[in-house]
Amino acid sequence: MHATRHLPDSRYAVMRLIVTMLLMTVGSSGMYVVSVVLPAVQADFGVARADASLPYTLLMIGFGVGGVVMGKLADRFGVMWPLLLGAVALGLGYIACSFAGGIVSFAIVQALLVGLLGSAAVFAPLVADTSLWFVKRRGIAVAVCASGNYIAGAIWPPIVQHFIETVGWRTTYFGMGVFCGLAMAGLALFMRERPPLEVPVATPAATPGRVTIGPSMQPFGLSLGMAQGLLCVAGTACCVAMAMPQVHIVAYCSDLGYGAARGAQMLSVMLAFGIVSRLVSGYICDRIGGLRTLLLGSVLQCVALVLFLPFDGLVPLFVVSALFGLFQGGIVPSYAIIVREYFPPAEAGARVGTVIMCTLLGMALGGWMSGKVFDLTGSYHAAFINGIAWNLLNMSIAVTLLLRVRRMHSAALATP
User: Fold this and answer.
1) Is the pTM of this model over 0.85?
2) Which residues form the signal peptide (predicted)?
3) DSSP 228
């Protein structure tokens, strides 16, 4: 039992949301810093591009698994304690990376300290905590919270690239460890109060003239396992495609002769537009539903990936990177909406966690796979085509599910 002195939607809740944004910005740095140091790490350790991409892959796997573990800790002890654990792990992880003697030790530290115990402490626990502190404005509050992840992607790459060029990647990592560890621990102390034990449930307003198929034991007319499996495959596929530009844009710009600094700027622009996309997608989901939002985002992401093929000039790449960020930011949150719209509410938490983990595994697989395709072909052209193919798989699943829902709507309307 615990005493809660403040209510949902209060000024305290707003203050807490601001602190949450800062925590997400600091704690999520691990997801993006490793992409920026990829060229420097590859050169330092003398490894192939696929091997240099391995730390990102293992970090994302650790991030996915760690989110489940940290979420359970937050449910039991409150969000402050996993945040403090994450602060220690993230700080020590960065510092340990700065002393790594090879790609294997570097990758292991990324997976365990930076991913599993570090950055994982901020995403799932903070999103869950925010949802308990807001009722009337829960949707926008959760969107703002989740956008902190992209804010980290917008501000950290150029900062880290600057210090890599001036003091080297090892000193940069050591400094990141000291700063992020202390900042995250200090901010975590503001999150001591537990959420209200009982929160009124906000009932969504019905949309006039819209026929919907609610949650059931047969979502999309399929068994629970089959429906869950299709969403997991779709989540993996869309994020394999998503990882190609996000993980390799810095290395791609270096190969084109523009330098790693330009690539870091492009990554920053991409993720800054992703913030806008993530917020707008919540607005769109409320009007057309999660499944249509997923399909819309997938189609637009595919368009952006195709545009990377003919355009490799500096200005066009900046434009395409911005479009890619604007198109793809709302894809992953739409899976949570889909699960809540079509699956039994009592199982929503576990099923959302499973699908989101698959999206993270997709990012991990895509980061490594793009590097491997580059090693085999000597060009990122084939890697972009590989991403497009995975994106088409995601689109086909979204279309299939949408058609099944429409048939169910027609059947429901035809039933007297």
Assistant:
1) no
2) none
3) H
